[in-house]
Design goal:
By secondary structure, the protein is α/β, with parallel strands linked by helices. It has helices spanning 11-22, 34-41, 51-55, 68-76, 100-113, 126-130, 142-152, 167-195, 200-209, 215-226, 235-252, 257-271; strands at 3-7, 26-30, 46-47, 60-63, 91-94, 116-119, 122-123, 134-139, 156-163. α8 packs across α12 (257-271), α9 runs antiparallel to α10 and α11 (235-252) packs antiparallel against α12 (257-271).
Length: 287
């Protein structure tokens, strides 16, 4: 078993830390607010006052944070940043969804420090984390993936190496964009069929029985029909991921016209007051 530091104990990080403990790893934790940290410490982890302290003596340091700004502060803060606490040859693993540009910069800084880096964002939310059924999309060397597998498998049912550093993050942004596009399309089309006199619940059920509908879209259709928007993946986070996707595309000259249109819908949903509701709430724009 390994010594693992978990930086960030939000909805996902807290569950991942608990899974690491259940798998028999020694777990060191840090979180900006103390209550989640105390909850994981009660399960057997060791709490630390700063990311740097948590990273010291850890073979693997995992961050699960909201965005680029949070990740940058936790890793690079001059006084408390985890980077300076990394042991030589430790593995830094970014599991949050960041921009590809920041992911590349962080990887470079970690390597200059003498440690190793993987981008390993996850597909899935709280229910999948609790069920140890997350899916890691990984960018980095295969030997490093193999070395990290026992740690990553504590919360995951599948691990996919996509390619070199940054490719896991790029794939995660593409996955989240595809999810958001499906949700927005369902929202407007369910509204369309309702205007045609079709019961929206019947339409959602029919969508779910047809081959054109993905499993996740089937769940989304039912939730939109019921107007169930309790947050698992909030509109604000979906908007952040659309922005990162479009930014990465512009830097590489890739055309994403559909993604841009749907990204604008999520920004409109935030302006309409739906930012903290689940991303299904983008459908309210069409009601």
């Amino acid at each position: 078993m390994s010594t693992v530091a978990m930086l960030g104990l939000g909805a996902m990080g807290r569950r991942m830390a608990a899974n690491l403990l259940l798998a028999g790893h020694v777990v060191r934790v840090w979180n900006r607010s103390p209550v989640p940290c105390a909850e994981v410490v009660a399960l057997g982890a060791t709490g630390h006052a700063t990311p740097r302290e948590a990273a010291r003596q850890a073979e693997f340091v995992i961050s699960m944070l909201r965005d680029d700004d949070a990740s940058r502060a936790v890793w690079l803060d001059a006084a408390t940043g985890a980077l300076a606490g990394l042991q030589p040859d430790a593995v830094a693993i970014e599991c949050g969804t960041t921009s590809v540009a920041w992911c590349g910069e962080l990887a470079e800084r970690v390597c200059v420090h003498g440690a190793c880096f993987l981008d390993a964002p996850v597909v899935g939310s709280r229910p999948q984390a609790e069920a140890k059924a997350l899916i890691h999309l990984i960018g980095g060397p295969q030997d490093l993936v193999d070395r990290s597998r026992p740690v990553l498998e504590a919360s995951a049912s599948a691990i996919h190496r996509v390619g070199d550093t940054g490719s896991g993050m790029a794939m995660k942004l593409a996955v989240n964009a595809l999810f958001g596009i499906q949700v927005a399309a369902l929202g407007e089309l369910l509204n369309f069929v309702a205007h045609c006199g079709i019961d929206v619940h019947q339409a959602a059920e029919l969508f779910g029985q047809l081959p054109v509908t993905s499993p996740v879209a089937k769940v989304a259709a039912a939730a939109i029909a019921d107007r169930r928007y309790a947050p698992l993946f909030p509109v604000a986070l979906a908007d952040k991921d659309f922005r990162y996707t479009l930014e990465s595309a512009r830097m590489r000259g890739a055309l994403l016209p559909t993604t841009a249109v749907v990204g604008d819908l999520f920004q409109r949903a935030i302006r309409a007051g739906h930012g903290e509701q689940n991303l299904y709430a983008v459908a309210e724009l069409f009601n």
